[in-house]
Amino acid sequence: MQTKYVILEQNGLEIPIILSELQQHADVIKYPGQKVVSAGFVSFHRHPLSMDKVASSCFGQSISLGVKSRRGFDELIIDKMILGN
Questions:
Q1: pTM of the prediction?
Q2: Of 18, 21, 17, 19, which is closest to residue 1 (Cα–Cα)?
Q3: Nearest to 38 by CA among 19, 22, 23, 16
Q4: For residue range 36-66, what is the model confidence (pLDDT) as tens digits?
Q5: How many domains does the chain have?
């Protein structure tokens, strides 16, 4: 199963949202005018520098939203805001 993600911009802050592969990326858009920054797929694995932490790997794109993953930049956001790294 592949986990999906979307990053939205709200008030100048980029907010990551993690969702199931059973959902469409576009399902997270609930209000007109929400700005989608990037979207794709994310996997989680042990952090390469610290065995007691988890890290993310972002890749791919969202067909339903028409945006791509920003890979490393999205990984930094997810690692910090979702995983607390």
A1: 0.88
A2: 21
A3: 16
A4: 999 999 999 887 777 788 889 999 999 999 9
A5: 1
Residues in the chain: 85
- Which residues form the domain of 27? 3-81
Q: Is the dihedral of CA 17, 23, 24, 28 positive or negative?
A: negative
In the chain, % of residues over pLDDT 70: 99
Determine the Cα–Cα distance for residues 33 and 11; give it in Å rounded to an integer: 12
Sheet containing strand 35-47, strands side by side: 13-19, 3-10, 35-47, 50-59
Tokens representing 2 are: 């592949």
Measure the CA–CA gap between 38 and 72, rounded to whole angstroms. 12
- Separation between Cα atoms, residue 43 and residue 39, nearest integer Å: 13
The residue written with tokens 């920003």 in the block is: 70
* CA–CA dist 50, 58 (Å, integer): 19
